[in-house]
Amino acid sequence: MVEKKWNFLWVSFEDCSPIHGCFGHNVAKTPNVDSFAEEACIYPNAFACTGVCAPSRAAIITGMYPTSIGAQHMRTTHTDPHLPELPTPYNALPPAQVKCFTEYLRASGYYCSNNSKTDYQFEVPITAWDDCSNTGHWRNRYSKDQPFFAVFNPTNTHESGSWESVDIELRVDPLEVPVPPLFPDTPRVRESIAKTYTQMSIADDRFGELVDQLKEDGLYESTIIIHWSDHGPWPRGKRWVYDTGIKVPFIVRIPGELDAGTQDHRLISTVDLGPTLLSLAGLPVPIHMEGKAFLGKYQTPEREFTYHSRDRYDTCYDQVRAVRSKRYKFITNSFPDLPRAVWLPFRNKHPIMRELLDLEAKGDLPENQRSLFETPRPVAEFYDLEQDPWEMNNIIDQPDHQSLIEEHKEALKGWQKVSDPYRDIDESTMVNNWYPEGKVAKTANPLFFVFGNGNYCEKPLTGIHRIEGPLMGQIVCSTEGASLQFRLSDLKNKSNSHWSIYKGFIPLERGIYKIEIQAQRIGFEASECVELNLEIY
Fold first, then answer.
1. Structural domains for the chain
2. Is the pLDDT confidence value at 223 over 60?
3. How far apart are CA 104 and CA 115, in angstroms?
């Protein structure tokens, strides 16, 4: 029996907490996601690895914690004119076996498109996507019966969409928005929150358009749809390991296989996204991946904990680690002498942050809203999230919680031994170890061999050749962990060709071909594109 080949659609909203209507927030205007959720399963306990986009997306595309692959610092590919001493720009250099999980899908025949945000902490390798552009769409796949994985990333919900400089017609009355107890209830704060809700409503429109397009194409019932966000919004949310920063919306629709209108309260981490998608596609999850498949053929047991990190974000160093169970969270601060509100100009453009800064300077900020300015901050924090969902009451010293604290502390230590290898290494040392003297390695040019009819892969082919067939082609690259792709053009029949992931021997029937091969490892420059012409008679 042939296994069903699902299509996949991901729609991610940036910088969003689960404040949609379907999560019980009656102020939100998200009718399209809410309607979709009635046919899907909601995961109320889904959490990002980090509270900021690039490290979070590095985890999502690789199935590895950002701390494991050197992607834990925010904005590695940018420079700051005020901080020339930072070791930026650089690409994270993961271990050789780490790849973008989309390569495994492409190798199995999927058309993979991304429209179009990446932000992976490394240059997107040439093998990651069939199409990564603002026109990427499943409708562009090579044949109508080809299964697809399509990603869409409406970016309007990014925190910058709530800045005071943004002129937008509000869809939500600022007087109706709920103000978290973390913030002062002022017109400036309410206006910014109303913009967040409005931007979510605009992104919801886009979500509805994509679902309508699936239905128009007759693909709605054969497509698994997953809606998620990379992290949460707002100060003390975004960039932080508090739930306001890491708790994200997560909704999955699998026609006929997941009960409609249900909730699954398992702990989910966004590092699980890639492994779960491979599992749903019927593909085994590579052993090196740290994420856990929570659905599909290769589903693993339920998580007991999720793990979270914060390091240098843009301009200033920090190091925070956290472990979360369903009810409790344990946090460690490696730099307790620093206030939480380290110097970060981009964050300081946010109206809520500006309100906090202005009130703190005047001495008018209430004590229970001063956590960003607290100095010294605690070495460790522990929260009962059931009793204290905003994490305002640190109970680390309460005697009746010490056994729970120890349990979470030991879980975090165990995770750090495996998944936090750079925690005691300066960023500059880490980067210099990867790129001595700043030199970026180039992926070696791949070689093309053939075997069959007396040919046994003894010498690579270059240039023009005429060989008796049929034959099999093989591609080799001396760069460890390099991903390989090829394009085989039938010159005789003038057939269209496209780049494919090399996954094994290539059948070469009689004909006249142009063969192009290229290789790239994450963190390396791509190889040259090697071309040869081959007539097989």
1. 7-304 (3.40.720.10), 320-438 (3.30.1120), 447-536 (2.60.40.10)
2. yes
3. 19
- Main-chain dihedrals φ then ψ at residue 266, nearest 5 degrees: -60, 150
**Which residues fall within 8 angstroms of residue 8, CB to CB, at 6 or more apart?**
148, 149, 150, 223, 224, 225, 226, 277, 280, 281
Q: Measuring CA to CA, which residue among 334, 326, 316, 311 is closest to residue 381?
A: 334
- What residues contact residue 257 under an 8 Å CB cut-off, 6+ apart? none
pLDDT at residue 1, rounded to an integer = 43
Residue 404 is inside which H or E element, if any?
Answer: helix 402-419
pTM of the model: 0.96
- Known catalytic residue: 53? yes
Beta carbons of 130 and 113 less than 8 angstroms apart:
yes
**pLDDT tens readout for residues 270-319:** 999 999 999 999 999 999 999 999 999 999 999 999 999 999 999 999 99
3-state secondary structure 76-112: CCCCCCCCCCCCCCCCCCCCCCCCCCHHHHHHCCCEE
Q: What is the mean pLDDT of residues 168-191?
A: 97
Rounded Cα distance between 299 and 280, Å, is 9
- For residue 255, cis peptide bond before it (omega within 30 degrees of 0): no
pLDDT digits (tens, 9 = 90+) for 43-79: 999 999 999 999 999 999 999 999 999 999 999 998 8
The answer to whether the beta carbons of residues 226 and 207 sit under 8 Å apart is no
Q: Which of 16, 22, 49, 53 is catalytic?
A: 53
